[in-house]
Amino acid sequence: MSSSFLISLVIFLFPIMQILEAHERSTTRRQLGPESCRTGNPIDDCWRCDSEWESNRKALADCAVGFGRNAVGGRDGEIYIVKSKDDDPVDPIPGSLRYAVIQEEPLWIIFDHDMVINLKQELVMNSYKTIDGRGFNVQMSNGPCISIYNVSNIIIHNIYIHDCVPAGSAVVRDSPKHYGPRGRSDGDGISIFGSRDIWIDHCTFSHCYDGLIDIVYGSTAITISNNYMFHHNEVMLMGHSDDFSADKNMQVTIAFNFFGDGLVQRMPRCRHGFFHIVNNIYTGWEMYAIGGSANPTINSQGNVFIASNDESTKEVTKHEIISEDDEWKKWNWRSEGDLMLNGAFFTPSGQETPASYMKASSMVARPATSLLTASSPSAGALSCRNSQPC
């Protein structure tokens, strides 16, 4: 690769970094003008050009791609407006976020002002809910965060989730008719357990006690897209344990995310299952970017991997092995159309035939260079204004 091409890529990357790391790396994002709203990102192009997005909020539910594309959230229910940041885990008040997410009917949950929600216990969600933070600066921080536990059809959009901590054993309400004891939570930003048809889009994550997003116990049909993640150690875990065979049916798409400063490992770490990692930007990792164990299938396509200057962290991948045998060489891991910069390299394994990756293919990858040259790229929570393109 010529030095002039590398210089051009750095020039393109610099405004991306400025956009994503502005305003304490949280919620300030450059807006898309009408002349540039089409970016080639199929999710954003589906809804962000609509200046009437506020009155057409539920159109977002038809914009998902990848394995989580069938997640409808609260599309078929009423709009619910969160007016209070107060949190009572046992008797939540009407107008609070917890009151909304435990209801049995579908709900599209929005907010009526900027708010920072400090939960007292983990937020246990019921099926068919959308948490839609567009229009305001909505943060969840300095307490336990979101638990998606044995449910389906959840959309979480445009929330800044940070500094999440474990919750102690406590009584928590999980429906209008039931509350009971919950064990100690892990301190994840979002914990997905035994659930399906889940879509996490345009959120910002950092500084949580355990993982930013963990997906375990047979969860599947999930898309993680357009998120901005920074300053965290164990970013995303996919699969409960090497011995938990139910995770062999897991399918997760990780697309259009920006993995920023201060991330160490697990972007993601995969067990069993099928993982399509497509059109993300990685800007340095302190240990590795993509890893796994227990024979996961990893299909990496159209990503940009920019290694740090540390010569010991150039490798993108890590095959987690218990013994010194060569079993890992049978695992199907491939890199196709990825852009490797500053010495980054990917160690492939397994079969090279397209048929071996069918269950780990969920969408068509864009060319990796297009991620660097887009006129107004964005990831993480958006600063949307009413009556303007978002």
From TrEMBL:
Q: Where is the Pectate lyase domain?
A: 114-311
Q: Which GO terms describe its molecular function?
A: metal ion binding; pectate lyase activity
Q: How is the cofactor bound?
A: Binds 1 Ca(2+) ion. Required for its activity.
Show the Pfam families listed in the entry: Pectate_lyase_4
Query: What domain of life does the native source organism fall in?
Result: Eukaryota
Using the record, list the residue span of the signal peptide; answer none if the entry has no such feature: 1-22
Tell me the protein family, please: Belongs to the polysaccharide lyase 1 family.
Q: A biological process (GO) annotation for this entry?
A: pectin catabolic process
| SMART domains cross-referenced by the UniProt entry | Amb_all (SM00656)
The record's catalysed reaction(s) read: Eliminative cleavage of (1->4)-alpha-D-galacturonan to give oligosaccharides with 4-deoxy-alpha-D-galact-4-enuronosyl groups at their non-reducing ends
Return the protein name: Pectate lyase
The alphabetized UniProt keywords are:
Calcium, Lyase, Metal-binding, Signal
Q: In which pathway does it act?
A: Glycan metabolism; pectin degradation; 2-dehydro-3-deoxy-D-gluconate from pectin: step 2/5
Q: Organism source for this protein?
A: Citrus sinensis
Cofactor(s) it depends on: Ca(2+)
EC id: 4.2.2.2
